[in-house]
Amino acid sequence: DGTYDPVCNSTFFSTYGLNYSKVCGQVRGYQYGGAEGFYRHYDYNYNLSDPYLTGVSITYDDNPIKHIWSYVCGLSEYDYYDELDCPCNTGNPYSPPSFINNDYYCESGIDHPYYFYGNFFSSNDPLWDGQQCNGVESSCCTTPNMPWFIKTLNETVSDDIQLRVCGGDNDVYNGERFSTPLDLIELYIK
Fold first, then answer.
1. C-beta of residue 37 within 8 angstroms of C-beta of residue 73
2. Residue 171 pLDDT more than 70?
3. Confidence band of 120 (pLDDT split at 50, 70, 90)
4. Which pTM does this prediction carry?
């Protein structure tokens, strides 16, 4: 009987009390180990306050928490039938969670099918840059703004912005760990 320990590490970006109704930015990361996409949402009905993805969740407010953008790491560029893969992969029957709508980017750093178990670092294919989107993942990289996101909120707020990086440990697959280490974060408000 295996266990799974999803975890999110969080940081806040202060807005210094400035009012804003638009947020834009970009995040770049890399795939370490396997990835679960939105699996935790699909199989456990996790919501925005839970570790619902492998990747980065950008939110504001906490009563209730509100979604800005998600950067999701899918399992493979070549798979399309599984909840571990990007829902934007051509042929994937899964949709993104309703609480994020289409406000997300999803890529995998794994450029071939079925090579995902193990503690490896995929450094030659940065995530969420719109590049090296091979196989069925090519449909995930058609947004002209990528890697930038631009989000107009339904309200004007002054809340700090929370960025959570979510991954986990899974002893079902020999102690595999998975995460998305980041080397670039840019966030702007207006």
1. yes
2. no
3. confident
4. 0.90
CA angle 160, 130, 113 (to 5 degrees): 110
User: Based on C-alpha coordinates, what's the Rg of the chain?
Assistant: 16
- Which residues, 6+ apart, have CB-to-CB distance to 155 below 8 Å? 21
The span from the CA of 76 to the CA of 131, in Å, is 14
Extended beta strands in 44-132, E state: 55-60, 66-73, 104-107, 121-127
Query: Dihedral of the CA atoms 43, 126, 12, 41 (nearest 10)?
Result: -10
**Residue located via tokens 């890529």:** 107
Mean pLDDT of 150-166: 96
70, pLDDT greater than 50: yes
Beta strands 176-178 and 66-73, pairing class: unpaired
